[in-house]
Specification:
This protein has 11 helices and 10 strands. With 257 residues, it is an alpha/beta fold.
Length: 257
């Protein structure tokens, strides 16, 4: 069974079509890239998958269940996570606090135990802190655990955002420009960490990214959107050499990817 299945999905805003009859299948454990020029409909598509916007046609299925009309919270509860182009962290909180927020949805102790701070509540809190600390170490953020997020450079905040997204323990994680604002060295390290943790935890990745050098290294298959439609789909090598993709988007980047 496909993990994610899109069938003729369309999204319009005020009569303007952002996504036009997109059909796509993503397999469990896959690392899928989504590329295209600005305005191609990439973010609109992942907003539809996560319920932030409603599609005007077609169906979206996750693990065989139709989630097209479900609210965002219900889709997230089924195991679909995401990050945004513009970071949405708790800026007054510390790095560790932000990652811990991703784990709170998995806490199962009762409110009485939480208030009293004993028994299962205390054990769960310790386990959550241990898992969050492990994610910080994986993204080279351990020394910044107690630093307020608002004081950190944008590239570091993106790493915090990635750690928090993984803390949610999604089965499908949609990443919208996850390495924007990072240096080349930071991007390479983040990509290696994302790939390793996704495979270790059985997470399927669906990634929108404009850094073609990174995308060609990270993705196993790439879907190309242009003017709201799918222009091409294939392996990184096939996309790099695809004439229509080069004309519509890659241009000279293909020579250096």
């Amino acid at each position: 069974m496909n993990l994610l299945g899109l069938n003729s999905v369309s999204v319009s805003f005020g009569g303007v079509a952002a996504v036009r009859c997109v059909t796509m299948k993503v397999e469990p454990g896959e690392i899928r890239g989504l590329i295209g020029p600005n305005g191609a409909g990439k973010t609109s598509l992942i907003n539809a998958i996560t319920g932030i916007v409603r599609s005007n046609g077609g169906t979206i299925a996750f693990e065989g269940e139709d989630i097209t009309a479900l609210p965002t919270e219900a889709i997230s509860a089924r195991g679909v996570g995401r990050t945004f182009q513009h970071i949405e962290l708790f800026r007054d909180g510390t790095v560790l606090d932000n990652v811990l927020t991703g784990l709170y949805r998995h806490h199962t102790y009762g409110i009485g135990a939480a208030i009293a701070g004993f028994g299962r509540a205390r054990r769960v809190e310790r386990e959550a802190r241990r898992e969050a600390t492990g994610l910080l170490e994986a993204f080279a953020l351990g020394s910044l655990a107690n630093a307020p997020v608002r004081d950190l450079p944008f590239g570091i905040q993106k790493r915090v955002d990635l750690a928090r997204a993984l803390a949610v323990r999604p089965r499908l994680l949609l990443l919208d420009e996850p390495i924007s604002g990072m240096s080349e060295a930071e991007a390479d390290a983040a990509v290696s960490t994302i790939r390793g943790l996704a495979r270790e935890r059985g997470i399927t990745l669906f990634i929108v990214e404009h850094n073609m050098r990174v995308m060609m290294r990270l993705a196993e298959r790439i879907t190309v959107m242009h003017e709201g439609e799918i222009l091409a789909e294939g392996t990184p090598a096939e996309i790099r050499d695809h004439p229509e993709v080069i004309d519509a988007y890659l241009g000279e980047e293909a020579e250096h990817a």
